[in-house]
Amino acid sequence: MKRLLLAVAVSTLLAGCATTTSPTGRTQVVGGVSEEQLAQLGAEAFAETKAKTPQSTDGRQSAYVRCVVQRVVEQLPPDWQNIGWETAVFVDDSPNAFALPGGKVGVNTGIFTVAKNQDQLAAVVAHEVGHVYSHHHNERITKQMGTQGALQMLGALAGARYGEGAANAVVQGGSIAAQAGFLLPNSRTQETEADVVGQQLMARAGFDPRQAVNLWQNMIAASRSHPPEWLSTHPNPETRIQELGSRAASLVPVYEQARASGHTPKCG
């Protein structure tokens, strides 16, 4: 009953938000914040990261990353290309990268331990750009706002009938249920969608989409363990590799056509 009420409350709170269609055709609920607010939040988060984390002083390394980002971004629609993309390389051993609303891309130096060539780096960058292009930040914020609002609503109902202790239990227990059964599965959906969009972008930019498979093989080799698929914000690595490999086969013609038409990136 608690889960049913939570679902109803979330639906009620999100009813006033907008629906849109992602690049893969998936229906999304967005509008918890405006795109302008998202861009501002992205800029603030990026500035904070730059203030707290040292940036690489290796000019060739920074130029390499900027080149890959630029080639990927050139495959976006014109209005997405012109949002002021900015790139930074952070001195951090963790093999990670991110992209934020407003066109902010950060890459850790640790990524070069798993991304062995420009095609593998493009797989990372295009995946992260895919999150931004697919409105995933807006979608997650909207859902989280709806969930928290719904929990407060249920807590008030429980408190009115059973007292403050019951209200607290509903909110705390509901948060756990929402995290495990509502927010995280959608995050996995977003991760898979970013894989799809990213692989398409890299192929159209002239990067070999098959190298996304090699990247994740390197990721697995570099990591000691990973959480189970049902309680993770990322798809199971083995499942991910199979899906990337299947898509790569269909994207090879796209990649070959891009190369034939002059998209031959020489980033490093």
From TrEMBL:
It comes from Agrilutibacter niabensis. This is Zn-dependent protease. Residues 1-20 form the signal peptide. Belongs to the peptidase M48 family. Binds 1 zinc ion per subunit. InterPro entries: Mito/Outer_Membr_Metalloprot (IPR051156), Peptidase_M48 (IPR001915). GO terms for biological process: proteolysis. Keywords: Hydrolase, Metal-binding, Metalloprotease, Protease, Signal, Zinc. The keyword Signal applies. The keyword Nucleotidyltransferase does not apply. Transmembrane segments: none annotated. Its cofactor is Zn(2+). PROSITE patterns: PROKAR_LIPOPROTEIN. Residues 61-247 form the Peptidase M48 domain.
